[in-house]
Design brief:
It is built from 19 helices and no strands. By secondary structure, the chain is mostly helical. The longest helix has 37 residues. The relative contact order is 0.14.
Length: 445
């Protein structure tokens, strides 16, 4: 399939991805919403362990991006029959990685979290959640390979349906297992972990059924299980590994920030958990457009239309900015009205205390709308190693600032969060300079 650079094409690709790429965001948001009704310690714990699991999920998602970029490139070149081999190479690796992550979460999480968390009750709740949540990593990692496949071939519509099913199952089971409804055991934060895992299993099974009945799957050679192609594997990891390193660096910096805030007090940690979940939800359009621009850029290059790469990134950024501006405005400006039905009356004080941090969050989201799109457009060209260098440098300064500001200057949450505005401005600027240089024209994908 050969794509074009029209706004209609950008929306056609990005809108389903926008909804479908929010799988882990949806799970994290649901967990926080329900656990916020238990206690502040549960809310603080899910903020930390939720960020950790998002990092785990993002590692699998990052490795799948290499496959997505390669699949989009093959489609742009008119080589649909090579898609299946690329897809299964991705699946083999994701399964191996899932085994490693599962073992780490089962046997290493207590020692890992003890380095960052001082409060014993929060530490216990984090490990309790992971004891159930870790089983979902197998289905999550293969699931992102499915998402990469249908995003790469620019047919992301079913991703939305599968995500909605996952969200519904997770919502229902969260209610039942956290609070002990409908005859289910009252498990608290552990119930949230179990509910999310079961929801991922259901979504995985439904996606497999869809692929079986997909008439286009034969064209992609999805029903022929290939042997491991080590040359293809190396090419895929050459693209994907810097993306994963970017994810680890970026999410690791975020996790470090949350851990520092926890040491300021339970109330501050709870406020940050609330703001973070609002950030996750309101950034869904940004991640959707960013993932869409991966496919668009790689497909354009596959068609040998390199001169259209910058225009399609700019148009995608404009659309992302407009959608983010409109969707975020009522939540940021009137949080006491919009968030009240979500977090409930017991958390109204937290909502009021978080109001000024929400204003800062609005600025972050608007800068991220362009910075995230341009940064992912860079990945679509195959220049992932340069992207890693950009993010590493920015993250080092980000972590250094928040450590000094929170531990020594003891600044408020607003100034701590404001560092992310500068973070995305610098990433955006450095990415733009590289893309304009045309150094990516000769890169192999």
């Amino acid at each position: 399939m050969q794509l074009d650079t029209s706004y209609r094409q950008i929306l056609a690709i990005s809108t389903p991805i926008m909804l479908g790429s929010a799988v882990q965001n949806v799970i994290a948001a649901t967990d926080v919403i329900f656990l916020s009704r238990l206690s502040q310690s549960d809310l603080a714990a899910i903020g930390i362990v939720g960020a950790f699991y998002l990092t785990v999920a993002a590692v699998g998602f990052g490795f799948s991006k290499g496959g997505q970029i390669m699949i989009a490139r093959r489609m742009g070149e008119g080589k649909a029959d090579e898609v299946g081999k690329t897809f299964y190479t991705m699946v083999y690796f994701e399964l191996a990685l899932a085994v490693f992550m599962f073992l780490f979460m089962q046997y290493g999480s207590l020692e890992f979290f003890s380095y960052f968390i001082d409060a014993p009750d929060i530490l216990f709740k984090c490990t309790e959640y992971l004891s159930y949540r870790s089983w979902g990593v197998f289905f999550s990692y293969v699931g992102v390979a499915f998402v990469a496949l249908y995003t790469g071939v620019a047919r992301p519509t079913f991703i939305v349906i599968d995500t909605l099913i996952l969200a519904l199952v997770n919502f229902v089971l969260n209610w039942g297992l956290i609070f002990g409804k409908w005859g289910l055991p009252e498990m608290g934060i552990a119930g949230a972990g179990l509910a999310s895992t079961i929801a991922e299993v259901v979504a995985f099974v439904i996606f497999v059924i869809y692929i079986y009945f997909d008439k286009e799957a034969v064209k992609y050679n999805l029903f022929k299980l290939p042997k491991i192609d080590f040359d293809l594997f190396k090419d895929q990891q050459r693209i994907a590994t810097p993306i994963v390193a970017q994810v680890v660096v970026g999410m690791g910096a975020s996790f470090f920030f949350l851990s520092l805030v926890e040491n300021l007090g339970e109330t501050e940690a709870a406020i940050t958990s609330m703001v973070r979940i609002v950030y996750l939800v309101l950034s869904i359009p940004c991640w959707g457009f960013a993932s869409g621009v991966n496919t668009l850029v790689s497909n354009m290059i596959g068609q040998n239309r390199k001169d259209e790469v910058m225009p399609v990134i700019w148009k995608t950024g404009l659309l992302c900015f407009g959608v983010t501006l409109i969707i975020s405005f009522p939540v940021i400006i009137f949080p006491e009205y919009v968030l009240y039905p979500v977090f409930g009356e017991t958390n109204m004080d937290l909502i009021y205390d978080a109001k000024y941090t929400m204003y800062v969050l609005y600025g972050i989201l608007l800068v991220f709308a362009f910075g995230g799109v341009y940064f992912n457009g860079l990945a679509g060209t195959g220049a992932t190693f340069y992207g890693l260098k950009i993010q590493t440098v920015c993250s080092v300064f980000y972590v250094g600032y928040i450590a000094y500001a929170i531990k020594y200057l003891q600044v408020g949450l607003e100034l701590a969060w404001a560092s992310e505005i500068f973070y995305w401005v610098v990433i955006w600027g450095l990415t733009y300079v590289y893309l304009r240089s045309n150094k990516w024209h000769g890169l192999k994908v």
